[in-house]
């Protein structure tokens, strides 16, 4: 695993972590995390993939140049990261907030996406508005604790105490302004009328007990994407890429095989 930095057109420097070689896989992190969210998953991915995770705007030292931006701007950033890496098209995996970026990337730039894995995410902000609005009023510390509680079940914590430590390490302290900008960008998200345009092999994975984005949102997302495969994970909460990393990696490997 190695760290690199790519430069976007506006001069922003974007830190990335890279592992492996072969078919390109772009990993897009969630609302409260950064690129290190995928450090654990990267160790579980099969050989033959070059996985790259990058930091979104308002993450770490990368403060957004715009006070008000949309999810389209997040998609533009992802596209520029792909270009900076000199990839023509990629396999894409996005979790939660990153899953929104991933699905919009596939809609707006279908030529860039070879397969799509959407994990613990939604086609419309309305499914997560209650949780998101409450989180905006929390301190960074309270928000982090709330996300930890929502991430994995008590049974999973008891079975693997290191799981919480790995999730905690991936959470990022953002200023209230940074968090508000990211959530405000998400508020207008509703891709449901455009999801039929996604024509690549797609996996939708969702925990049955997810308190952040309910399982019904995952089912709806899969229903709107032609030919998608839906993986409902019993008893899982929001951090499925951590708790079920081996299983998710196997499903991604199957999805990208031959593509």
TL;DR?
With 259 residues, this protein is α/β, with parallel strands linked by helices.
Give an account of the 3D structure.
This protein has 259 residues and is an alpha/beta fold. α9 (215-224) links the parallel β7 and β8. The mean pLDDT is 92. Strands 1-2-4-3-5-6-7-8 form an 8-stranded mixed sheet, sandwiched between helices. It contains 11 helices and 8 strands. α2 crosses α3. The radius of gyration is 17 Å and the shape is globular. It is 40% helix and 20% strand. The longest helix has 14 residues, at 71-84. 44% of the residues are buried.
Topology record:
Elements: E1 2-7, E2 13-19, E3 22-28, H1 39-44, E4 48-54, H2 71-84, E5 90-95, H3 97-108, E6 113-119, H4 129-136, H5 140-151, H6 154-159, H7 162-170, H8 176-186, E7 202-207, H9 215-224, E8 229-233, H10 240-243, H11 245-256
């Amino acid at each position: 695993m190695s760290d690199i930095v790519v430069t976007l057109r506006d001069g922003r420097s974007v830190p990335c972590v890279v592992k492996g070689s072969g078919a390109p896989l772009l990993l897009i992190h969630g609302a409260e995390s950064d690129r290190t969210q995928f450090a654990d998953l990267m160790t579980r991915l099969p050989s033959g993939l070059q996985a790259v995770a990058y930091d979104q705007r308002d993450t770490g030292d990368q403060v957004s140049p715009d006070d008000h931006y949309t999810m389209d701007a997040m998609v533009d950033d992802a596209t520029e990261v792909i270009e900076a890496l000199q990839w023509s098209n990629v396999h894409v995996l996005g979790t939660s907030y990153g899953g929104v970026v991933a699905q919009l990337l596939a809609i707006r730039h279908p030529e860039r996406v070879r397969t799509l894995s959407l994990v613990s995410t939604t086609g419309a902000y309305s499914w997560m508005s209650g949780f998101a609005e409450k989180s905006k009023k929390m301190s960074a510390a309270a928000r982090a604790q709330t996300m930890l509680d929502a991430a994995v079940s008590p049974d999973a914590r008891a079975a693997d105490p290191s799981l919480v430590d790995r999730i905690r390490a991936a959470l990022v302290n953002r200023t209230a302004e940074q968090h508000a900008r990211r959530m405000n960008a998400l508020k207008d998200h509703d891709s449901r009328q455009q999801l039929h345009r996604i024509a690549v092999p797609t996996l939708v994975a969702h925990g049955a007990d997810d308190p952040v984005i309910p399982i019904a949102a995952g089912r709806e997302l899969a229903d709107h994407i032609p030919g998608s495969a839906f993986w409902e994970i019993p008893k899982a909460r929001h951090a499925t890429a951590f708790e079920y990393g081996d299983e998710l990696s196997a499903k991604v490997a199957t999805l990208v095989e031959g593509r």
